[in-house]
Amino acid sequence: MIKIRSLVKDFDGHCVLNGVNLDVAAGDIKVVMGASGCGKSTLLRCLNRLLDVTSGSIHFMGNDITHKDTDVRQLRQQIGFVFQQFALYRHLSVLDNVTLALRKLRGLSRADANEKASFELEKLAMIDHRHKYPAQISGGQKQRVAIARALAMDPSMIVFDEPTSALDPIMSREVAALIRTLNEERVTILCVTHDVALGKVLSDNVVFLDRGEVKAEASFDYLCHDHPDAEVRAFFGRGESR
Amino acid sequence: MLPFIEILATLAEGVAYTVWVTVVCSVTGVGVGLTVVALRKLEISSLTIFLDVFTYVFRAVPLLVMLFIVYFGFPSLGVKLSPLLAMVLSLGVIAGAYLGEVYRGALQAVDDHEILAAQSMGFNRWQILLLIEFPQMLRFSFPGMVNEFTTVLKYSPFAYTVGMPEITKQAMALTGVTNQGIEIYLAAGLLYFAIYRILLLALQAVENYWRIPGMKPL
Questions:
Q1: In B, which residues are within 8 Å of A75 by CB distance?
Q2: Which of chain B's residues have a Cβ under 8 Å away from the Cβ of A135?
Q3: Any residues with CB less than 8 A from the CB of A12 and at least 6 apart, and which?
Q4: CB contacts < 8 Å between A and B, how many?
Q5: Which CATH number, 1.10.20.140, 3.40.140.10, 2.40.50.140, 1.10.3720.10, labels domain B4-210?
Q6: pLDDT tens by residue, A160-211
Q7: Is A101 in Cβ contact with B121 (below 8 Å)?
Q8: What is the pTM of this model?
């Protein structure tokens, strides 16, 4: 579904991504890990053209989306984005947070959008909170709404940007389980995180990004115990005790 | 000697003009302020410089000077305006310059992540402005807007200088024939206070209706 080749992104000469190669197959779950500032979020932002790449290519469903003729708004509707900070619209109820894009981008009537949103909220156990506002629900619930908002658009894949960083351990486990469930339902997922515990729960095959380069792609156990680079072993070893 | 209640009744004839000037100039101010803040979002440097100059000028020049330029100056250019339109083009636009700054501050309180989320979903710049930023900005700027509306009310007596028979004009006319200045201006003050109080209650009702549930005021 996604094929990233030799991706470079620099900001005024400061290279944040330096020749990244990455593949995500349809129905797959890919976890990209690395320390803060290694370029994980930049990678995601390049993926839906929130940032333009400096060089390299990103093929999404066979099309090079770095091409200037790419319909960026259409692309963005195909890639659901879930943020670390939830990013719910504070002035809208839970239901309206989910229906807004359906009504304004997909052109659904309010009744149809409500029906679709209610289906997604029901699935994520948030239907009883549909009339509440973001300030009235917990962090874990906000993240569920953010996921429902992404799912409602029927995206081809969902990308998660540090989905548990703003959550306590219990809520983190809930969200991790939810992401796994989505993947079991064949939703393609790309998740970037520095949370080793989350990475371990989500996938056995992990990509390690370091200073803008893919340093390793291997099983969690290998990266934790057998990788030749002590830095890599130390990074993944942090999650062992959890 | 006129009884106080009769003074109040006479001055009340000007209340409709005072309220009309206040409402029309406040609405104009909101329109101008929203336009200024929306144009700023275009981030076109020459336009931003123009908006900065507009804001500085209309905040710096006294209302009376602006009003006289519009009402007494424009006819020399062949443009004759009604007193209400002159008030709109002076007081309304000055209020707009102030409100533009109020809105600019409130806009900064909108969470960047919400804008990023909207961009990532495929909303365009204007959709984000109208659906995400403006609804929150208007709520966050409510205290500043209330301040500006009350300022407009307090500047509304300048309408008498261009011949509008609002409360102060009525008071001056009545003082001229009765020589009861203290009672008359006290009654005028009471009427302004009553209008202010009603305006405030109405705005508080709107603010409460608009308040985002669960969110503390900024």
A1: 122
A2: 212-215
A3: none
A4: 71
A5: 1.10.3720.10
A6: 998 888 888 888 888 888 898 888 888 899 999 988 888 888 887 899 998 8
A7: yes
A8: 0.86
